[in-house]
Each structure stands twice: as structure tokens, then as C-alpha cells.
């Protein structure tokens, strides 16, 4: 009988993604062994805290976990392996992570096989990792945003060492393609077109935790979307922190509008969305592509952040109130039925009542179909964190409430304008409260609930919008 030689040097591939497939196989062996011991399959839960980009990363983690042999579940208390994919854009996101980690520790004490992994934007902040090392010793693995593709390798290291494994990179210029990924929905998918951000808005931590801007090669993007479309995907959301600067740093530069023209040609794909657009880089060429496209949804998320030119300057947004309004005017001229949504921050350092009134003025002039409103959150390491004139909490709270009221009133008035029209909805799910209804999303991003069956999920169906319920519709399917 041949004996295995313990000292044989294993051949570990040095190129990616082959190296990660090697570690996936290694992890698979470990999972199989533990599973045989316990005489049950091992389960894993990935919990996402952040934006669409984080959600997309979670799909990649899920793809790898499934390959390794884990059964995916939603409840973290019941999982053998829990991963928190974290966000650090505002302080409350961080607090939620620490809170839930505390609870998870109690669960882990009862299940010694349990593994806890942390990744995502929070892990790119050195003070966070210090705190975890000191007070959260029960965490098993920690990795960052730049080396997420190395997940299987980090996990294999943990299986071998039985100790906390930390692997964080400061930055990266590489993009690893062709790793597994498991979509949450069969009919729609996010597609990364770029990573990182170079804008350094003075309040924002993203450029520090996601690194420098890098665009994916257009051929890789098109190939991915072609495969998705062949697999039944009807709608894609092109993702980047600032999609309007896509392609500028490629070896053969290409504009975002040019990329959209290529995506439009893909057979089987019916809808194209993208986010986020920075107003400073939104080109006439893009407006023209939106005007003529048959597939790009008539919805644009255009974060304004503040209506005060003074504050915008301090935020380093590089546009004025007037330039923003002019841009909105141009877009509406070209695409009259466009739905506009935005992000607004209240209480940026030195924001006065007059500055805030300017924000309200923009809200009233643009009449957003919906807006995300945020209370300014101080992020350590950003220029705004050390600015003088931080606004007192009660003042911010008062402004926030006034803004929210204005935004909601206008949004429901805008929503009501569609009553009686027939629009196409992509059916996403059976209604959570009433199983005789299905829920579909319109091109303008509004939701409509109408009588239907689960067989309609993933189909585009024409729906008459009967009754506006403030932010969504009740409707009925109509024959084409
Ligand atoms: N790249 C996107 C936004 C990413 S973060 C863009 O530029 O539009 C999403 C939103 O979070 C931002 O638009 C902003 O409104 C909000 N945000 C970012 N940093 C914040 C902070 N420090 N405090 C409060 N809100 C913040
Ligand atoms: Fe943050 Fe500004 Fe970059 Fe958006 S564009 S991610 S707000 S720095
Ligand atoms: Fe949060 Fe990171 Fe997205 S900080 S908003 S998850 S890029």
C-alpha cells in the first residue's frame, strides 16, 4: 500500500482565480469532515449591512460558501457559519454590528462548531480591527473589501490554525474575475462596473475603505451580462460609486454612455438601471443615451446632498445649487417622464438655517419621486470630522423632521400622478401580506401590488395603476 508523504510539497496555484478554486476544494474537505462528525449538513448565513455593492459582494460570498458545501439559511442564530458583511458609511451601521456580535457570542458558547466571520467596509478601519482584537476574541476571521475574492483562502487558513485570522489590505489595483457567485433573484442582478471612489466628498468614508477608483474591462462586463441574460435575467443594475466616471482610467478609455450602448444590444435583457450618478460627471452624451434607449429605465438617482452652494463647496461636491437645478432641467427636457430620486444630508458642519432653507428649496423645485434623508454622521479620518461648527443635535433633529415631511408630501403627490395609467411591471415576488397578490416594480421604481400568481415572478406584465397608496400602487394586470 502506498503511504502518503506528509512532507510532500503541495502544488498551490499562484494565479487567480485558480488559487481560490484550490482553496475552495480544501475547505470542502474540512466541511465534509465536520458534517460527517455531526451527521448533518453545515449551514451558513451571510448578513449584509450596506449598499447594493455590499449586497453584490454578499452574493459572491454565498457563491463560494455553496461551492464549499454549506447550506445557506437566513437565521444567523441557527447557522454554523455567520458572516457579517459590514458598512461604515454612518456610525449607526457600526453600532448595529457590535450589538449583534454581542448576541452572537452567546449563541456561539452553546455551539462550539460555530464560526463567525466579519468583512466589508468597517474592517478597512484600523480602529475597528483593534477593538475586535481586544474585546471580540470569539470572532474567527476578519477580511476586508480589497481581498474579498480571497475568502476561501482565509477560511482554509482558519480551518488549519484554529485561531482568529485577520487579512486586511490597505488598497489594491487588481480585479479578480470568474469566481463563483449566487444570485439572490433569478430575474434581476447587480453587476459591478467599477470599484472604489476618487471623489473624496469631505464627509464620506467610502474612498478610504473602498480604495481608488478602478473600472472593470468592458468585455468582462458584457460577457457577464450576456451570461446573466442567457440565464433568464431581465434586469441589471450597473453598480459603482460614481458610474458617470466609468472607463476613464481604462487602457482604452470608454465612457459610461458608450458602455450603456453596448449593454443595450444584449439579447434577452429588457431593463437597465444604474447607480450612483454623481451630478458633476453626468454628461450630455449620457442624457442622449437615456433619451433614445429602449431598455434604460426612466429613473435616475441623483444625490444632491445639500441645496446650499456654500455647503456643497465645503462638502467638496464640485457643483453649485444652480448647476444641479440646470442639470435636472436638461434631463427633464430630454426624458419628460423621468423619475428622480436623491440622497440628502442634514446637519453638515456649519450648516445654517439659511443653508437648510436652500435644501428645502431644491426639494420643492425638483419634486423628487423619493429621497433618502440622512443625519450627518462624523466619520473619523474624513476632513469634515475636524471642521469647526458641528451643528447641535436638537437643531439637526428639527431640520431633519421638517425635511422628511416635505420630502414625503411631495413624493406621495408625485406618486399619485400615475393613477389610471398602464405601465409595465417586472414581477418580483408574491405579496408578503396577501398571497393572492404579486408585487412588481415599474420602470420608475415604484412598486405595484396586483392579483397574480407565483408563476408570474420574473415576467414583465402590463398593469393598470388603480389606486395610489402614498408610495406604492394597487393595480390589475391588463392584456397587451
Ligand atoms: N457614491 C454615492 C453614495 C454612497 S454613500 C454618491 O456619491 O452618491 C450613500 C449616501 O450616504 C450618500 O449619498 C450620502 O447621502 C450618505 N452619506 C455618506 N456619508 C455620510 C455621512 N458621513 N453622514 C451622513 N450621510 C452620509
Ligand atoms: Fe462618497 Fe462622494 Fe464617493 Fe459618493 S462620490 S462614495 S459620497 S466620496
Ligand atoms: Fe457602506 Fe461600504 Fe456601501 S461603507 S454604503 S457598504 S461602500
Automatic annotation (TrEMBL):
Entry GO MF terms: 4 iron, 4 sulfur cluster binding; metal ion binding; tRNA-2-methylthio-N(6)-dimethylallyladenosine(37) synthase activity
One GO CC term, this protein: cytosol
Record-listed [4Fe-4S] cluster 2 binding positions: 197, 201, 204
Cofactors, names only: [4Fe-4S] cluster
Keyword tRNA processing tagged: yes
Binding of [4Fe-4S] cluster 1, residues: 51, 87, 121
Summary of subunit composition and partner proteins: Monomer.
Protein name: tRNA-2-methylthio-N(6)-dimethylallyladenosine synthase
Species name: Sellimonas catena
Gene: miaB
Amino acid at each position: 500500500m502506498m503511504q502518503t508523504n506528509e512532507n510532500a510539497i503541495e502544488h498551490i496555484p499562484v494565479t487567480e482565480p485558480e488559487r481560490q478554486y484550490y482553496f475552495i476544494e480544501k475547505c470542502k474537505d474540512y466541511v465534509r469532515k465536520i458534517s460527517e462528525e455531526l451527521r448533518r449538513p453545515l449551514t451558513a448565513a451571510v448578513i449584509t449591512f450596506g449598499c447594493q455593492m455590499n449586497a453584490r459582494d454578499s452574493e459572491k460570498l454565498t457563491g463560494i460558501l455553496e461551492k464549499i458545501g454549506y447550506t445557506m439559511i437566513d437565521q444567523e442564530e441557527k447557522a454554523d457559519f455567520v458572516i457579517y458583511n459590514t458598512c461604515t458609511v454612518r456610525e449607526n451601521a457600526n453600532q448595529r454590528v457590535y450589538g449583534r456580535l454581542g448576541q452572537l457570542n452567546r449563541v456561539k458558547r452553546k455551539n462550539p462548531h460555530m464560526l463567525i466571520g466579519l468583512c466589508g467596509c468597517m474592517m478597512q478601519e484600523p480602529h475597528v480591527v483593534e477593538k475586535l482584537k481586544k474585546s471580540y476574541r470569539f470572532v474567527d476571521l476578519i477580511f476586508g473589501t480589497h481581498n474579498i475574492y480571497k475568502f476561501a483562502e482565509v477560511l482554509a487558513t482558519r480551518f488549519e490554525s484554529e485561531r482568529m485570522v485577520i487579512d486586511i489590505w490597505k488598497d489594491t489595483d487588481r480585479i479578480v474575475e470568474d469566481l463563483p457567485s449566487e444570485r439572490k433573484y433569478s430575474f434581476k442582478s447587480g453587476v459591478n462596473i467599477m470599484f472604489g471612489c476618487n471623489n473624496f466628498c469631505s464627509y464620506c468614508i467610502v474612498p478610504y475603505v473602498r480604495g481608488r477608483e478602478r473600472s472593470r474591462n468592458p468585455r468582462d462586463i458584457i460577457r457577464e451580462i450576456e451570461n446573466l441574460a442567457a440565464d433568464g435575467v431581465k434586469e441589471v443594475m450597473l453598480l459603482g460609486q460614481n458610474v458617470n466616471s466609468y472607463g476613464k482610467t481604462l487602457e482604452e478609455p470608454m465612457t459610461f454612455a458608450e458602455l450603456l450602448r453596448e449593454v443595450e444590444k444584449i439579447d434577452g435583457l429588457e431593463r437597465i438601471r444604474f447607480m450612483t450618478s454623481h451630478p458633476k460627471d453626468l454628461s450630455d452624451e449620457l442624457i442622449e443615451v437615456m433619451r433614445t434607449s429602449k431598455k434604460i429605465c426612466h429613473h435616475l438617482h441623483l444625490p444632491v446632498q445639500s441645496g446650499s452652494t456654500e455647503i456643497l463647496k465645503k462638502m467638496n461636491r464640485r457643483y453649485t445649487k444652480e448647476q444641479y437645478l440646470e442639470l435636472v432641467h436638461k434631463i427633464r427636457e430630454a426624458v419628460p417622464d423621468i423619475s428622480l430620486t436623491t440622497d440628502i444630508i442634514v446637519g453638515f458642519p456649519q450648516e445654517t438655517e439659511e443653508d437648510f432653507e436652500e435644501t428645502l428649496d431644491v426639494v420643492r423645485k425638483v419634486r423628487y419621486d423619493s429621497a433618502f434623508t440622512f443625519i450627518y454622521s462624523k466619520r473619523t479620518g474624513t476632513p469634515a470630522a475636524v471642521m469647526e461648527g458641528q451643528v447641535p443635535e436638537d437643531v439637526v433633529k428639527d431640520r431633519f423632521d421638517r425635511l422628511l415631511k416635505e420630502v414625503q408630501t411631495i413624493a406621495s403627490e408625485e406618486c399619485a400622478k400615475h393613477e389610471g395609467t398602464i405601465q409595465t411591471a417586472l414581477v418580483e415576488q408574491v405579496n408578503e401580506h396577501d398571497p393572492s397578490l404579486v408585487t412588481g416594480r415599474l420602470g420608475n421604481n415604484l412598486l405595484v401590488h396586483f392579483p397574480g400568481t407565483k408563476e408570474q415572478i420574473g415576467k414583465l406584465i402590463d398593469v393598470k395603476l388603480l389606486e395610489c397608496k402614498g408610495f406604492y400602487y394597487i393595480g390589475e394586470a391588463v392584456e397587451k
